[in-house]
Write a structure and sequence with these properties.
Blueprint lengths: L4 E4 L6 E2 L1 H14 L7 H7 L4 H8 L5 H18 L5 E2 L3 H8 L6 E6 L3 H11 L7 E4 L10 H10 L6 E5 L2 H10 L3 E4 L6 H5 L5 E3 L2 H12 L1
Parallel strand pairs: 1-4, 1-6, 4-5, 6-7, 7-8
Antiparallel strand pairs: 2-3
Helix pairs in contact: 1-4, 3-4, 5-10
Pfam families: HAD_2 (PF13419)
GO molecular function: hydrolase activity
Keywords: Hydrolase
Length: about 220
């Protein structure tokens, strides 16, 4: 058993939530009178904490306008946007299979807020899948590695015995900073070229291939 901890990103890695994020952010930008945002521009910032994402997406935005945009984003994402949002096919069964390995710990490191992640945990009844989690509003945003360091400390796992799984360079770069093994998934938002630049140990092109690799390394 090479790894005793698997840390998952959420959006674009476990959950097919990117279309909802994009459309909610586009609506929020219009509400805040920032203007139109392109889909690829919004996809590029997925994974960052919301304040950092807005700063990068809307350079020069004033603090009051940024706060309004973020408030409207939360409204659209939670209440107004009807875009479907579910786990990628195979995720639930694959996580369940991993959990059969009693010595293996699972965690989440996400750009969501704690309130947002807890809401998703509750709505999908997935909170008890994981031994720990960190969100961008209770530590530093990706790509800073603080959330990974905190998870390692909480779960008492050495860095070489953990692996980070994510669909963006922000996920992989925070792991690389710590010298943590990392796996990219190409079915999320960042291109294969961007993921390869962070030197992942493996690049999965499907949920099936991701969990096949994890089973080999964690069993």
């Amino acid at each position: 058993m090479r790894f005793e901890l698997v840390i998952f990103d959420w959006d674009g890695t476990l959950m097919d939530s990117v279309p909802r994020i994009v459309s909610s952010m586009q609506s929020a930008a219009r509400d805040a009178q920032w203007g139109d945002l392109s889909g690829p521009a919004v996809e590029d910032i997925i994974g960052l904490g919301l304040p950092e994402a807005v700063d990068k997406l809307c350079p020069g935005i004033l603090p009051e306008q940024s706060a309004h945009l973020r408030e409207r984003y939360a409204h659209h994402f939670v209440h107004a946007d009807p875009t479907p949002m579910t786990f990628f096919g195979g995720v639930e069964a694959s996580i369940s299979a991993l959990r059969q390995r009693k010595a293996l710990k699972l965690a989440v490191a996400t750009g969501k807020t704690r309130r947002g992640l807890d809401r998703i945990f509750r709505d999908t009844q997935s909170g008890d899948w994981f031994h720990a989690s960190r969100t961008a509003d209770e530590t530093r945003s990706k790509p800073h590695p603080q959330m990974l360091s905190e998870l390692l400390d909480e779960l008492k796992v050495p860095v070489e015995r953990a692996v980070m799984v994510g669909d963006t360079e922000y996920d992989l770069e925070m792991a690389r900073t710590l010298g943590m093994p990392r796996v990219g998934v190409s079915y999320g938002v960042h291109s294969v070229e961007r993921l390869f630049a962070s030197e992942p140990e493996y690049l999965a092109h499907s949920v099936e291939s991701l969990f096949e690799w994890l089973h080999r390394e964690c069993w």
